[in-house]
Write a structure and sequence with these properties.
The chain folds into three domains: 5-163, Rossmann fold; 171-427, no CATH class; 431-558, 3-Layer(aba) Sandwich (Rossmann fold), CATH 3.40.50.620. 44% of the residues lie in helices and 17% in strands. It is elongated, with a radius of gyration of 30 Å. Mean pLDDT is 84; it is low at 1-19 and 355-360. The strands form five sheets. The chain has a five-stranded parallel sheet, with helices on both faces. It has a four-stranded mixed sheet with strand order 9-8-10-11. A four-stranded parallel sheet has the order 16-15-14-17, sandwiched between helices. It has helices spanning 26-35, 52-60, 77-82, 87-97, 118-130, 143-149, 169-175, 179-187, 196-212, 216-225, 228-248, 255-267, 284-296, 329-340, 343-352, 355-358, 363-375, 423-429, 442-451, 469-486, 504-511, 527-546; strands spanning 5-12, 15-22, 42-45, 65-70, 107-112, 135-139, 160-163, 300-306, 317-326, 385-389, 398-399, 401-405, 408-412, 432-438, 455-461, 496-499, 551-554. It contains 22 helices and 17 strands. By secondary structure, it is of the alpha/beta class. The longest helix has 21 residues, at 228-248. The N and C termini lie far apart (73 Å). Helix 1 packs across helix 2 (52-60).
Length: 565
């Protein structure tokens, strides 16, 4: 056996169980939680059968006493919580039930499948308030759904969460005893790439990882048997358990609907989800509800479209364009086989393709790339995924993932082979073109300073609300002489100036001065200003649209004389 395997025994529900434990990245986060002096009760969150309970049992070895209280296996547990929320009494009752001492600092209390008891969820708040010295961890296969449905707060701010996922590729390599490969991969860079011989070995290992996925049961089966069929059997059992979970919520959402949406999502991996592709004639409302359920259960993760003009990325999300990825590649192959019978062909492609071709096995590796981004993120928060696409008619540019790193936007594209042009990536990284409507030089300065790093700026000088024409020309001349001086220190000084026609009659018509002569005597910030705003913004929009600008804006709101209260 490999050195990374840990054989252990533990006491749980008065039984001695022997398991093979695969070291997980979450182990370190759990140990850090254990040692915190101001720790809170911990919620370990994630999909079914990804190893949550096993990780907590491993943590339990750090304590003198360990209690695993499972609400689905022991129905009598609920009565301890429903009678009262005096947590010291509850803890004492659990200790008596499992014949294990409750000693603060020495006992780990694990409340498993806690979603079966809403009172137990609420009790976590009081464990923080009334019994903070006791180590308490809670988890559940459908915990997210229970938290979402609960109309009461479960103690936000008084409970810590850690998010867990199937094994990452690094964890898989560690499980197979290849820790040195992980180290070599982590220190590799563009200037110091992985050696070709090791790269080939890593590629072969990655093929295996794609096949069996990161579900612990599948990985253990592979390690014990070196047989793909054995791991696939475990995956099929997991898939069956997910479908069984659907039945538990039959009163709230149709299991047939969930099955149809999941199968459709599997077939649409790597593409924008199209509701009409779901078989069964379900409404968009019902499909959205099912997608929400599957995301809450951790089976699917959304990848949302963002315009990515700035941080945070979630500010500019367009929910109409959303992709969904499945939590595991092994599970994807299993569900594809169940729905289309195509797993054998995909399996053959994975095992026989060249290294370059393997990278582009359709949406599979794009999905795995997204999953790896989630797995390597901090477990202290749920990591959202975004992608970018040029939504202009006829455009084809798309970047698979958009990341936020060190307050910078980072595009991430999964590409086939070792050559070729990355047109979408280059298109995204080009500065976007913005039209800035302006009426004078002073009002432009602050706006230009804020926009110059993110956009290529074109100034549209347009202001027919100036009288006489000599004043219009004087302001234009001032702007023309000012711009070169102002932008001289900029990295990109090429800010272009466009001059539109001077026609006061257009302004008079727009504000309807003839129909409303009283507007001629109106003070600043009144209806005349509103109509002027609307008129100039429409003019700027028309010009921007005609000339293929990405955005347009105005300096009008900068002036303290034009600001509205």
């Amino acid at each position: 056996m490999h050195n990374s395997f840990i054989f252990s025994t533990f006491a749980a529900t008065n039984q001695i169980l022997s398991i093979m434990y695969i070291n997980r990245a979450i182990d370190q986060a759990l140990l850090e939680w254990k040692e915190k002096s101001n720790r809170k009760p911990l919620l370990l969150r994630g999909a079914r059968q990804i190893g949550k309970s096993t990780a907590v049992r491993q943590l339990g070895k750090q304590f003198d006493y360990y209690i695993e209280a499972n609400f689905e296996k022991n129905s009598s547990l609920k009565s301890l919580f429903t009678s009262n929320l005096a947590v010291k009494d509850i803890a004492a009752g659990i200790g008596n039930l499992y014949n294990t001492p409750i000693v603060p600092g020495k006992t780990l209390l694990f409340l498993d499948e806690i979603q079966s008891c809403s009172e137990a969820i609420h009790s976590l708040w009081f464990f923080k308030e009334d019994f903070p010295e006791l180590h308490v961890v809670a988890a559940g296969s459908l915990l997210e759904l229970a938290l979402k449905e609960d109309t009461q707060t479960y103690g936000v701010g008084r409970i810590q969460s850690l998010y867990m996922y199937p094994l990452s590729f690094d964890e898989f390599l560690m499980a197979t005893g290849r820790s040195m490969w992980v180290s070599a991969k982590q220190i590799a860079s563009a200037n110091q790439p992985i050696q070709e011989a090791l790269h080939e070995q890593l590629t072969n290992a990655f093929r295996t990882f794609l096949m069996i996925g990161g579900m612990p049961a599948s990985v253990v089966a592979w390690l014990e048997t070196n047989d793909y069929l054995a791991s696939q059997e475990e995956i099929e059992n997991i898939a069956d358990s997910y479908y069984e979970d659907f039945k538990k919520y039959a009163k709230k959402i149709s299991p047939d609907l969930l099955t149809a949406v999941l199968q459709s999502a599997v077939l649409q991996i790597g593409s924008k989800f199209v509701y009409s592709h779901v078989e069964g004639g379900y409404s968009i409302y019902d499909i959205k509800k099912a997608l929400g359920f599957l995301c809450d259960a951790g089976i699917l993760s959304p990848v949302q479209h963002t315009a990515a003009n700035g941080l945070p990325l979630g500010v500019e999300v367009n929910k109409k364009f959303t992709k969904y990825i499945l939590l595991d590649s092994g599970l994807l192959l299993c569900l594809l086989n169940m729905s289309t019978g195509s797993r054998l062909q995909i399996t053959e492609d994975i095992l026989t393709a060249t290294a370059a071709d393997l990278i582009n096995k359709g949406s599979l590796t794009e999905m795995v790339a997204g999953l790896e981004l989630i797995k390597y993120a901090s477990p202290k928060r749920k990591y959202p995924l975004y992608y970018w696409e040029n939504l202009a008619k006829g455009a084809t540019a798309e970047v698979d993932y958009i990341l936020s790193r060190d307050m910078q936007i980072v595009p991430f594209e999964v590409k086939a082979g070792t050559s070729g042009k990355m047109k979408s990536l280059r298109f995204f990284m080009e500065k976007k073109k913005i039209l800035l409507q302006s009426c004078c030089a002073p009002c432009s300065t602050a706006v230009i300073e804020r926009l110059k790093d993110e956009y290529d700026i074109v100034i549209l000088y347009y202001n027919p609300n100036i009288y006489p024409e000599t004043e219009y020309s004087r302001r234009l001349s001032e702007l023309e002489s000012f711009l070169p001086k102002f932008t001289k220190t900029f990295e990109n000084p090429n800010i272009n100036l466009i001059k539109d026609e001077y026609n006061p009659e257009d302004f008079y018509t727009a504000i309807k001065i003839k129909e409303n002569p009283e507007l001629a005597k109106e003070k600043e910030k009144g209806m005349r200003c509103y109509r002027c705003y609307e008129f100039r913004l429409k003019k700027a929009f028309e010009y921007a649209k005609r000339n293929n600008f990405d955005y347009f804006c105005t300096t009008l709101s900068i002036s303290p004389f034009k600001a509205f209260t």
